[in-house]
Specification:
Blueprint (H helix, E strand, L loop, with lengths): L11 E5 L5 E5 L5 H16 L3 H8 L5 H10 L2 H8 L4 H10 L4 H7 L16 H10 L4 H20 L26 H10 L2 H13 L3 H5 L6 E2 L4 E5 L7 E5 L6 H10 L12 H15 L8 H12 L4 H8 L7 H6 L19
Antiparallel strand pairs: 1-2, 3-4, 4-5
Helix pairs in contact: 6-8, 9-10, 9-13, 10-12, 10-14
Length: 353
């Protein structure tokens, strides 16, 4: 029998599962007629021995109103099938705790929000494809999301939560041509000279090493050896981003050194400015100087192009940037600027008598 207590706006109902365990559940409606219809449906389930439904109700994996609404529109069996599979929400958190790239976890959370039921049965090729299709970002960024989802799916396969990596069969988007905004060293010096405080030292270090923001943000004072001119970079995109880099540009060293010496604790973060604030400072300086619009990431292009032009070996540039030894990215993106004077040597001419 449905009943209503004074403190509640909706009617309640007592439901008993297969083991005889009972629970008082809200019907989700203040209308007695609807509440009695829900009660009648529950009695029908009991007569038909639909223990899957009754057990799910008592375990509070589904509400009475959800059962009633799904029954009315003919989707109850589909809803139960979803309940029978794992909820991916807590598994995303577990994946993150086991060392997944935090950026990947954040991207996966766009499809599987925290705190909301997301049955594994709903994680399909079509669902992934539709999710990527409506993302309000460019194709290359959609590919980053696809990579994150694929890594998560691979982990789910290892955990025997799903049978196959459904993301692998979802087509990627065309990549844009590589973006290579870079400054020659005179303009780079002007830009850094326009900056102040942490931002000045931070960008000088990026210009002098080719380090990426993620590695810069993770630096501690102990990671920098001014005498050896080395920096222990803690990148996390891949294993090659954990590396030792050298401050190769002499003009950046005094700027970096002054800031490093101001940080007294070896375990203190070397920089405390946020990415957004650092980017604001950068773009304000760029605008004031009338330079081509750029981002903090473009210091990597500036470092690579200027050093390849002056003859630095591509393998050294790869090591500084955190690329794999056999990676072709440096040659593919910066190949036009790789200078080797031997390329211009002509073979000796054979004299024909």
């Amino acid at each position: 029998m449905v009943f209503q207590v004074k403190a509640s706006h909706s009617f309640k109902l007592r439901v008993v599962d297969q083991q005889g365990k009972g629970a008082t559940l809200g019907t989700g409606t203040p209308d007695k007629g609807t509440a009695e219809a829900i009660e009648s449906l529950v009695k029908t389930f009991r007569r038909r021995r639909r223990w899957d439904l009754l057990n799910a109700l008592v375990a509070k994996r589904i509400t009475l109103r959800e059962v009633y609404d799904a029954h009315e529109v003919g989707t109850l069996d589909q809803r139960l099938a979803e309940l029978a599979t794992a909820n991916l929400d807590p598994l995303v958190s577990d994946w993150g705790k086991q060392g997944a790239n935090p950026k990947y976890v954040k991207q996966v959370r766009q499809m599987i929000p925290a705190g909301k039921l997301y049955p594994a049965s709903r994680f399909t090729r079509k669902a992934v494809s539709n999710f990527l299709a409506v993302l309000d970002v460019q194709g290359p960024t959609k590919n980053r999301y696809r990579t994150a989802l694929s890594q998560f799916a691979r982990w789910l396969v290892e955990q025997e939560t799903i049978e196959t990596n459904v993301v692998r069969d979802v087509a990627g988007k065309p990549e844009n041509d590589p973006r290579t905004v870079w400054y020659d060293w005179p303009d780079a010096k002007r830009l850094i000279g326009k900056l102040e405080g942490e931002s000045k030292a931070l960008e000088a270090l990026m210009a002098g090493t080719g380090m990426e923001w993620q590695a810069i943000a993770n630096l501690k004072r102990r990671d920098v050896d001014l005498k050896a001119r080395t920096v222990r970079a803690h990148g996390f995109k891949n294993k090659h981003r954990n590396r030792m880099v050298r401050i190769t540009e002499d003009w950046t060293l005094p700027i970096v050194a002054e800031h490093v010496r101001s940080v007294t604790s070896l375990d203190a973060p070397l920089f405390t400015v946020t990415n957004d604030r650092a980017l604001d400072h950068h773009q304000a300086a760029v605008k004031a100087l009338g330079l081509e619009t750029s981002t903090l990431h473009d210091w990597r292009h500036t470092y690579a192009v200027n050093n390849l032009q002056r003859g630095m070996k591509p393998q050294v540039v790869k090591r500084q940037l955190g690329h794999a030894k056999n990676s072709t990215m440096v040659e593919r993106i910066y190949g036009v600027w790789i200078v080797d004077e031997k390329d211009y040597e002509l073979p000796a001419m054979r004299v024909v008598k």
